[in-house]
Amino acid sequence: MKEIYIVEFPSNLGLKEPQPGKEPGVKKLPDWFRKHNLHKVINPKEIIRLDAPKYKSDRDPETKILNTNALIDYAREQAFLINNLLSQNKFPFILGGDCSILLGVAMALKQKGNYGLFYLDGHTDFMDVSLSETGGVGGMAASIVTGNGHDKLTNILNLSPYIKEENLWCVGNREYDDEYENEIIKSSATYINLDSLRKRGIKNTVELFLSEIENKNLDGFWLHIDVDVLNDAVMPCVDSRTPDGLTYNEFNELTSYLFQSKKLTGLEITILDPDLDTTGKYTNDFTAQLTHTFNVFKNELL
């Protein structure tokens, strides 16, 4: 049976400043989750922390992306850590941070084999830097890990692509802008926006994804959970708010199917900003919902 390791990646390197001179608050998320008992309820074998390099607000002149060199250094360290855990048949339960933490994870997955990625997010994060107003990797993470973009970030350690584009499932986007959606539509990834997910049905969607993992004989899949996939009414403490989103009933149903698959290799949680949840209400609710679903099914998963 696999042992669960909570891995803390307290990084805000992939986001712009919410206001001049103020860093994004997501780097406080692992400590915030600990305060709201997520660690205690998950009850991991061990907790590992890897602090991120110092945040800077200027764009790299070569890539036009924020914190490029820091992201590269951090991704190398992350990949080494995650690779070690996977080699020991551990289950990494990662607490971010923003979505840029995926880079190091995806590199480790590439080093271990051929993996799928279930990208559950209120945005596609499949954006070219030319469309980005912020230069933040958080809005490009799914694109970068599938080999799209500047070599400095897409080909660290000569591993590009970390995840094959056709093995990416991008699910839950509700930013229905043609220019934004076209990037993922014209790719070879599977794209299921929020409207399509509801029309297809959650169970049917996840079953199709899991059957594809089996049919392609992939070594497993990674689950990315950006909390902004949730309905804005229950999760407003994110950097890019958008109307609508999954209810907790929908979210719990979807994750419950994924948590029952032994092909699930690990997961990460991103974007909840403690600075935007001063009372802890939304963090408490999320922690209760996610940990209950995870603990119900973890014996099947592990």
TrEMBL record:
SUPFAM superfamilies: Arginase/deacetylase. One of its GO terms (molecular function) is hydrolase activity. The keyword 4Fe-4S does not apply. Its EC number is 3.5.3.-. It comes from the Bacteria. Pfam families: Arginase. Keywords: Hydrolase, Manganese, Metal-binding. Belongs to the arginase family. This is Arginase family protein. It comes from Flavobacterium branchiicola.
